[in-house]
């Protein structure tokens, strides 16, 4: 049977890389977003709003996906609102595809906030997990929109009979414009600003992050992981961590990133220097850089998500993920983290998003 994928959030880091991988494997790929990316050759774009059931039903009425990949979410002011909105998005989507009875598997991307807590209580005392984080760790005793999204998938799977997988990456590194959580591009933009102004490339985070062990997830690895889980019977109906497979310390990697841009690195100096503060007034500067170098995106906020980078790099503990569960079931993909960043930087330069 021809595999037909519905990639929800196809314009984001995860969704775009996943769609590209699926297309390379000759899947039929529908890409859903409010403004779906159209530059992927072979992608069938679907413009729809997950919060409008009538709009969603009309947009999906003519397709019968075999696999649904949910990579989209929406940030709100409070966790209560995050829960309401993001669970509704998942529920609406799965209700909209239910009538065709074509769905065999649903994959949902969440992340390490499953273990570290939601934005309002992120990595705070009383919620800090034992690391490396493992899939069998129990849910935290606090509200979390990731849990609400999972519960919507579980309920629909019970009702409609499809299998499911949950994917928990750690800081996804990949190319996207307008993405809400985008450390790789944020650091590339920050480094470019430092190069243009002569500022030092100042590590913005905590001593625990600077000195502790960490890992990240290349968007290309995440894409392969999602396809593997969706098409491997032993991986069905399970939750998985997913990361590159190596570990590093920022005290080592920071200099590597600075060297790529040929700028001076400045490490942790005893204080946190939030990136959101460091680049708070650089919007006009970036627009000028974009004009001088003929860059495609002059809006700094469309490229940099400093708040999210600060959240990750400001954590009071080292954080890395255990992938034994995936390895035991046969997922052996590995990615060097330096190359994750260097490949991204090269692509951003090639596509004229950084000078």
UniProtKB/TrEMBL annotation:
One of the Pfam families matching this protein, by short name: PRISE
Gene3D superfamilies in the record: NAD(P)-binding Rossmann-like Domain
All copies of domain PRISE-like Rossmann-fold, residue ranges: 66-355
Domain of life: Bacteria
InterPro entries assigned: NAD(P)-bd_dom_sf (IPR036291), PRISE-like_Rossmann-fold (IPR055222)
PANTHER family, alphabetized: 3-OXO-DELTA(4,5)-STEROID 5-BETA-REDUCTASE (PTHR32487:SF0)
Protein name per Swiss-Prot or TrEMBL: SDR family oxidoreductase
Organism, scientific name: Spirosoma validum
């Amino acid at each position: 049977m021809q595999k037909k994928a519905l990639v929800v959030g196809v314009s984001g880091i995860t969704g775009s890389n996943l769609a590209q991988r699926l297309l390379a494997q000759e899947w039929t790929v529908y890409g859903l977003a409010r403004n779906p990316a159209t530059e992927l050759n072979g992608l069938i774009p679907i413009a729809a709003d997950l919060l409008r059931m009538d709009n969603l039903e009309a947009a999906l009425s003519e397709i019968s996906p075999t696999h649904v990949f949910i990579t989209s979410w929406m940030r709100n002011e409070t966790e209560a609102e995050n829960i309401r909105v993001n669970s509704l998005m998942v529920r609406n989507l799965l209700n909209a595809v239910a009538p065709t009875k074509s769905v065999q598997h649903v994959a949902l991307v969440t992340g390490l906030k499953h273990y570290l807590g939601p934005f309002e209580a992120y990595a705070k005392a009383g919620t800090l997990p034992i690391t490396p984080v493992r899939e069998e760790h129990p849910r935290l005793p606090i509200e979390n929109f990731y849990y609400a999204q999972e519960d919507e998938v579980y309920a629909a799977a019970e009702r409609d009979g499809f299998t499911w997988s949950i994917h928990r990456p750690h800081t996804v590194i990949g190319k996207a414009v307008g993405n809400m959580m985008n450390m790789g591009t944020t650091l590339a933009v920050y480094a470019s600003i430092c190069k243009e102004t002569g500022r030092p490339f100042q590590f913005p985070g905590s001593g625990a992050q600077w000195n502790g062990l960490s890992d990240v997830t290349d968007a290309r690895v995440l894409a392969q992981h999602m396809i593997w889980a969706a098409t491997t019977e032993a991986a069905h109906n399970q939750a998985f961590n997913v990361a590159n497979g190596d570990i590093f310390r920022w005290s080592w990697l920071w200099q590597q990133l600075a060297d790529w841009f040929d700028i001076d690195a400045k490490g942790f100096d005893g204080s946190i220097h939030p990136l959101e503060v460091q680049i708070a007034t650089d919007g006009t500067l970036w627009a000028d850089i974009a004009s001088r170098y003929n860059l495609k995106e002059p809006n700094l906020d469309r490229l940099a998500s400093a708040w999210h980078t600060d959240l990750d790099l400001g954590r009071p503990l080292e954080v890395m993920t255990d992938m034994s569960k995936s390895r035991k079931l046969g997922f052996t993909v590995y990615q060097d983290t330096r190359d994750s960043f260097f490949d991204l930087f090269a692509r951003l330069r090639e596509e004229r998003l950084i000078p």
